[in-house]
Structures are given as C-alpha cells and as structure tokens.
Amino acid sequence: MKIILEDLLEELKKNNIRLSHQRLKVLEFLVLNQCHPTADQIYNGLHKEVPTLSKTTVYNTLNSLTEANLVRVINIEDNETRYDINTFNHGHFKCQQCKEIYDFGIDIDSIYTDDLNGFKTTDKNVYFKGVCPKCSNA
Amino acid sequence: MKIILEDLLEELKKNNIRLSHQRLKVLEFLVLNQCHPTADQIYNGLHKEVPTLSKTTVYNTLNSLTEANLVRVINIEDNETRYDINTFNHGHFKCQQCKEIYDFGIDIDSIYTDDLNGFKTTDKNVYFKGVCPKCSNA
DNA sequence: TTTCTAACTTGTAATGATTACAAACTAATA
DNA sequence: TATTAGTTTGTAATCATTACAAGTTAGAAA
C-alpha cells in the first residue's frame, strides 16, 4: 500500500492539526524514509534542510501524529522509540545483528484468544527478533 | 503453569550464574510478584528486606536472567521496561486506564507469514493495548 | 489585506531510566 | 581455608524524552 502525502494532510486537517512547515517536513521525512527512524534520526535528517528545527519540535510533532493515528510507535527495543508512517496491519522483525527492522504482513486480527473477552483492544503490536537472511549468510 | 524456584535455581547453575543472595531475592520477588514489575518496583519491594541492595545489582541481575532466558523483557510502553518470570508462550495486554498488564494465552507460533522465509526468529512478542473490563464498567 | 490569537516552535534546563566504573566483597572450587 | 573470578555497591555519567517560558506563526475573521 502506498502512502500519499496529500492523504496525510487531509487527515491532519480532520484532526485539527495545523500544517506548519516543521510538521510537513517531519511527515515528508517519514514518507520518504520508511525505515522506522528514531526521533534523533529524523532530527538529524532534517537539520540541513530546516536548520531552525529543534528536537523538541520533532518530539512534539511525533506525539501529535501518533495521537491522530497517522504514525505508529514501535517499542521493539527498550532504549529506542521508532516511528512508522505505515499504520496498516503488520508486524515488525528486528535483526539482532544488523539492527534493521523489517516489516512483515500478518493479519493480527486473526490472533484469537478467549482470555480477552470483555477487553476493548485499540492497539495491537507484534514484534519478532532474530537474524535476517543477509546476516545469516554472511 | 506454575513456576518453581527450585527449577529456576537449576537453570541458573546450568548457565553458570552464581546463586548470590541478591539474585535469589530478585528471583523470589519475581516469582511472588507476577505483575510484570519494573526494575524500580523490584528494588523498592526488596529494599526493606535487603537494605544493602543496590539498584545497579537489580539491573545487572535482570540482565543476567534475561540472557539466560529465565525472565522475559516487556517493552509494551516506551518509558518503562518490565520483567516477567513467565517465559511461556503468551501475550500482554496493557490497560491504558489502570495501567495494569494482563497476560493472555495465544499460540504465537500459529502466526504465519511468508514474509519471514529465511529469517531466524528467536523471540516473539505480542502486545495489545486498550481498556480492561474493570475500567470499562467503572 | 490586515489583524488577532490560540496554537506552535525553540533553546535551555530538568527529569528519569539505565549503564560505566572501580573498589570492596563473596560463592564456590581446590 | 585460601584463592580468585565473579559479584555487589555507590557514585557519576549518559542518553532519550519532557517541562517550561518567551518568541513566532497559521489561519480565521474583520
């Protein structure tokens, strides 16, 4: 599924989030860099192009976008929060060697359990860890 | 499934981890408090009984136990690492209101995807968030 | 277009979890 | 019981994230 910046802007308007220069740049970065970047990577990636950008703004923006369900937070590792512009139903695999995070398709809704009867589930995440084929063959 | 301290000690020996007083106390705490405590909660919970205990030791111990696969790390929230003595195949549900983490049974291995052919998977986590029945009815 | 204001941005300082380090201590073996 | 590698401890350092207050701006309204 392709992510289109125009659709995201539409969503921002719906959520009453102002289309500031900084926010558009962060969004654009996330669309162009779907490698699950950290806040720091986003900040560094945009710093040349938007020299006035502050790290606080990056965090603020990411929090706003998360609340509006435009980005998804990935907590696969305890010391780094990552952000994903792809909010469709999918899991994340992190290679312990090269540290890369791979998306994989799964139908999370097919995971069924009696244990959660009566629970309202709003957010589902599936995280796998291991070694990717590139690193296995190296 | 019941967790028995003796079995854990056996595992420690197998992994060449010395049975120090502090480690035994941390392990005991995890067995008695299967509420997925944070390092801080473990430290505070043991402080009266083991006044010399330092927070560094708690972290060191948790890291050793994790490496030996005796405890499982839960990264359901970005600002808090939690620890689970129950290493059996199960998922975690966090209530956004009361903050409690519930275990739920699922067969994680039944989650199938073609996308991970060639990947070696060593660790699988399923995290759900939402509202638990207690909070829904309140 | 201009004005207005709530919302946004910025830099600095604070917070809080986790780790680094080096000296003191101890489990377990011989 | 002596030895020593592994462990513990307290303090200081690190690093990601947030708080805050002053300056700036998007976007509505005149």
Q: Your description of this structure?
A:
Two copies of one chain form a homodimer. By secondary structure, chain A is an alpha+beta fold. The first copy, chain A, has two domains: 5-84, Winged helix-like DNA-binding domain superfamily/Winged helix DNA-binding domain (Arc Repressor Mutant, subunit A), CATH 1.10.10.10; 90-136, Dna Ligase, domain 1, CATH 3.30.1490. The first copy, chain A, is built from five helices and five strands. Chain A has helices spanning 5-14, 21-32, 39-47, 55-67, 133-136, and strands at 72-77, 80-84, 90-95, 101-105, 120-131. In chain A, the strands form two sheets. Chain A has a three-stranded mixed β-sheet. In chain A, strands 1-2 form a two-stranded antiparallel ribbon. In chain A, α3 packs across α4. The longest helix of chain A is centred in the middle third of the chain and has 13 residues, at 55-67. The radius of gyration of chain A is 17 Å and the shape is globular. The two termini of chain A are 31 Å apart. The mean pLDDT of chain A is 93. Chain A binds chain B through residues 73, 75-78, 81, 91, 93, 96, 102-106, 110-116, 118-133, 136, and chain B through 73, 75-78, 81, 91, 93, 96, 102-106, 110-116, 118-133, 136. The structure holds a DNA duplex (30 and 30 nucleotides).
Map the helices and strands.
Two copies of one chain form a homodimer.
Chain A: H1 5-14, H2 21-32, H3 39-47, H4 55-67, E1 72-77, E2 80-84, E3 90-95, E4 101-105, E5 120-131, H5 133-136
Parallel strand pairs in A: 3-5
Antiparallel strand pairs in A: 1-2, 3-4
Chain B binds a DNA duplex (30 and 30 nucleotides) through α2 and α4.
